[in-house]
Design goal:
- By secondary structure, the protein is α/β, with parallel strands linked by helices.
- It contains five helices and five strands.
- A five-stranded mixed β-sheet has the order 3-2-1-4-5, with helices on both faces.
- The radius of gyration is 14 Å and the shape is globular.
Length: 145
């Protein structure tokens, strides 16, 4: 099974997948990631990968306690688009809180050949890094199928 994750960021949205065989160890050949500022292009990339109906699709949910900024508004719009479009296209969506990714960051950094600190600051990979971390932590919460 593949676990797909969309992680909306302030400027770009990350997309990652992880092929999961029910084992807790992953290799770089079992994952892939993208990042794009255009959610429609990124969604088209997702569809080109031919995801199966049995795959899990995760969307990081909006969670914000501060001022309502333009970035917050954009994130809400992206989450809304993804949840509605994925459902419309026949996928079941799992919405997750942003903090659920934290325990998977070390493994995601290893798979992306970087460090947690470096990837969190890397504008070309930070949202994809968060998406991959979400995929990893999700595997710890579900039973092998």
């Amino acid at each position: 099974m593949k676990i797909w994750t969309f992680d909306p960021g302030a400027v770009q949205t990350g997309l990652a997948y992880l092929t999961w065989y029910g084992q807790p160890v992953f290799s770089p050949s079992e994952m892939y990631w993208w990042q794009n500022s255009d959610i429609e292009d990124l969604y088209d990339d997702f569809l080109r990968e031919d995801p199966a109906w049995r795959d899990v699709v995760i969307v990081e949910d909006f969670s914000h306690g501060g001022a309502f900024t333009l970035e917050a508004k954009k994130t809400i719009e992206i989450v809304g688009f993804l949840v509605r479009q994925l459902s419309r296209d026949g996928y079941t969506v799992v919405r997750r809180h942003k903090d659920k990714r934290l325990s998977g960051q070390s493994e995601a950094a290893r798979l992306m050949a970087g460090t947690v600190a470096g990837l969190k600051k890397d504008p070309a990979r930070k949202d994809a890094f968060s998406a991959l971390a979400h995929s990893i932590t999700y595997t710890r919460e579900v039973e092998p199928r």
